[in-house]
Design goal:
The chain is an alpha/beta fold and 297 residues long. It contains 11 helices and 5 strands. The N and C termini lie far apart (73 Å).
Length: 297
């Protein structure tokens, strides 16, 4: 047995069926609205439009607003097109400049002039290639996969001495694995801090640093293996370097250094090693996502 073919009802016919359910079948507006998956106000709108104009009024209407106060006036649009006809090589920017010289108010924007030219088909509209906003968080999946380390300065020690610090964070947990004050940036002092972090928290799979001379001799002439590289090699740690002139690669450690700054004491009074340790403890409490040394081993 062959079933009769059924065609899909148009929007107008569907709305007409809903109206008949109310007018002919005597059903309530609430029941019809629930059956058709619309609001009661929508059914009332269909009824009023049907009573005013019949079946033709049930079709979709334009959603264009009745007025647009900021739309360019006809006189101004004609002036723009006349200037363009006079100087065909003028673009929206130059046209806006010419309108400003003629003291036109309100002055349209460059995009408004561009749309005016496109509507008049004076120019061919160019399809804009929007930048993809697909951000991917750069973070390792587990603790101890990667440490980020850096040397930061600007710590005023009590007595008027400015010190630097070897800082390090775990890439996944953001736990601070190193915050060692140094009177100056020297290879031995940096490596002592790195070795102390390894003894305290264990050996990570990789370490990421910038291209400073205390971290690598890759760019020396000739290239040499510095002490930091040798410690990594002897402990089986892969040493990763940032691309030259790309400081954002070590963004987490730079962010850590910036977060530690508000916790520093007033530069006028100076900082002691005890107060610096308290700053580190506050950072670990606030920024390590609840991770501790046990999470890193």
């Amino acid at each position: 047995m062959t079933l009769p073919s059924m065609r899909e009802l148009s929007v107008t016919e569907q709305r007409y069926q809903a109206i008949l359910a109310v007018i002919r079948d005597g059903r309530t507006v609430t029941e019809v609205a629930s059956e058709w998956g619309v609001s009661r106000q929508t059914v009332h709108t269909w009824l009023s439009r049907y009573e005013a104009g019949g079946l033709e009024e049930l079709g979709d209407r334009s959603h264009r607003p009745a007025s647009c106060p900021h739309q360019m006036s006809g006189e101004l649009e004609a002036m723009v097109l006349e200037l363009r006809r006079w100087k065909p090589y003028w673009g929206p920017r130059r046209l806006v400049l010419e309108l400003a010289r003629r003291k036109v108010a309100p002055l349209p924007s460059e995009s408004a002039v561009y749309r005016c030219l496109a509507r008049a088909r004076v120019i061919e509209p160019v399809r804009r290639h929007r930048r993809l906003e697909q951000w991917k968080r750069w973070e390792r999946g587990q603790p101890m996969e990667l440490w980020q380390m850096d040397v930061v300065g600007g710590f005023l020690i009590a007595g008027g001495i400015t010190a630097k610090a070897l800082t390090g964070v775990d890439d996944h947990s953001r736990f601070c694995v190193s915050a060692r004050l140094m009177p100056r940036e020297r290879t031995q002092l940096v490596c002592d801090g790195f070795t102390a972090a390894l003894r305290t928290y264990g050996v990570p799979e990789q370490v990421l640093t910038d291209n400073g001379k205390v971290f690598t001799g890759k760019y020396a002439q000739p290239p040499v293996e510095v002490l930091f590289d040798r410690i990594c090699r002897e402990n089986g740690v892969e040493h990763l370097l940032t691309q030259p002139h790309s400081p954002t690669t070590t963004g987490k450690i730079c962010e850590h250094d910036g977060d530690a700054a508000p916790g520093r004491p007033d530069p006028g009074q100076g900082m002691t090693t005890v107060s610096f340790a308290r700053c580190v403890d506050r950072y670990r409490t606030a920024s390590s996502k609840g991770s501790g040394p046990t999470d890193l081993t």
